[in-house]
């Protein structure tokens, strides 16, 4: 019998990405408080939060279920999560403006019955164009910044802010699908092709 796959995420983007591949899955959102500790590295935070989400959801699953979770952060001198206000979004986008930053997604895959617990990360470099303050304001007013790490969505109107990217595009959107397949193939014999 095939193991059930559970995506531990409320993010519509993660669901949409995974739906494009050869895999049936259920969704159980993970409710974890995203606390960032002083001095922690971005990749450490992204991996720890992804791992926490996977473990939380695993409690509600059958022992054979394979649970997948992810967490995305944006990093430039500091770790940027989701904006909490207009000012916060403006500050983040001004920090990222006309420069290179990295988007890091932690990915965790876990199964209770085998005690397999894998945690890894993917990193993508993104360069933003030189944006006039009025363009940044207009973008925030578009309304898509709110549930996005770093206050932009590359898959939305945020595409207009981007100069170039180096690495996996899907990693920026929130799910490093190629890295995920590496993990699923290697540890569970599951192919997404
Ligand atoms: C940089 C960037 C982030 N994002 C999103 C991906 C993530 O959904 C979000 C970062 O928040 P996360 O905390 O990683 O995820 P989430 O709260 O949306 O969902 P869950 O914890 O239930 O899995 O930012 C984009 O959609 N596009 C982008 O270009």
TrEMBL record:
GO molecular function: dTTP diphosphatase activity; UTP diphosphatase activity
Compartment(s) where it occurs, according to its Swiss-Prot or TrEMBL record: Cytoplasm
Catalysed reaction, written as an equation: dTTP + H2O = dTMP + diphosphate + H(+); UTP + H2O = UMP + diphosphate + H(+)
CDD domains: Maf
Primary site of residence: cytoplasm
CC annotations in GO: cytoplasm
InterPro entries: ITPase-like_fam, Maf-like
Named cofactor requirement(s): a divalent metal cation
Keywords: Cytoplasm, Hydrolase, Nucleotide metabolism
Site (Important for substrate specificity): 13, 72, 155
Catalytic residues identified in the record: 71
Family annotation (Gene3D superfamilies): 3.90.950.10
GO biological process, one term: nucleotide metabolic process
UniProt EC number: 3.6.1.9
Coiled coil ranges: none
Functional description taken from the UniProt entry: Nucleoside triphosphate pyrophosphatase that hydrolyzes dTTP and UTP. May have a dual role in cell division arrest and in preventing the incorporation of modified nucleotides into cellular nucleic acids.
NCBIfam families: maf
Family membership noted in the UniProt record: Belongs to the Maf family. YhdE subfamily.
Name listed for the protein in its UniProt record: dTTP/UTP pyrophosphatase
Biological source species: Geosporobacter subterraneus DSM 17957
């Amino acid at each position: 019998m095939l193991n059930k796959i559970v995506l531990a995420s409320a993010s519509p983007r993660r669901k949409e990405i995974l739906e494009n591949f050869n895999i049936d899955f259920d969704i159980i959102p993970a409710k974890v408080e995203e606390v960032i500790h002083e001095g922690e590295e971005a990749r450490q935070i992204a991996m720890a939060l992804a791992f926490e989400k996977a473990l939380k959801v695993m409690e509600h699953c059958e022992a054979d279920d394979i649970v997948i979770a992810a967490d995305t952060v944006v990093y430039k001198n500091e770790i940027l999560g989701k904006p909490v206000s207009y000012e916060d979004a403006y500050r983040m986008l001004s920090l990222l403006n006309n420069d290179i930053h990295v988007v890091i997604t932690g990915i965790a895959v876990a199964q209770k019955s085998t005690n397999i617990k894998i945690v890894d990360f993917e990193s993508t470099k993104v360069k933003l164009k030189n944006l006039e303050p009025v363009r940044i304001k207009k973008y925030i007013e578009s309304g898509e910044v709110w549930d996005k790490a770093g206050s932009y969505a590359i898959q939305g109107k945020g595409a207009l802010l981007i100069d170039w990217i180096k690495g996996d595009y899907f990693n920026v959107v929130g799910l490093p699908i190629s890295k995920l397949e590496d993990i699923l193939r290697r540890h569970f014999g599951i192919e997404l092709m």
